[in-house]
Amino acid sequence: MNVPSLFHFTFLLREARTPSWRPWILRKQQFSLPRVPLLQAAGKKNSFDLLGLTEAELKEQFVRGDGPGGQATNKTNNCVVLKHIPSGIVVKCHQTRSVEQNRKIAREILQEKVDLFYKGEDSDVFKEKKALEKKKQEKKRRAKENLERKKHFKEMQQLDKK
Question: What's the CA gap between 111 and 119, in Å, rounded?
Answer without folding.
Answer: 12
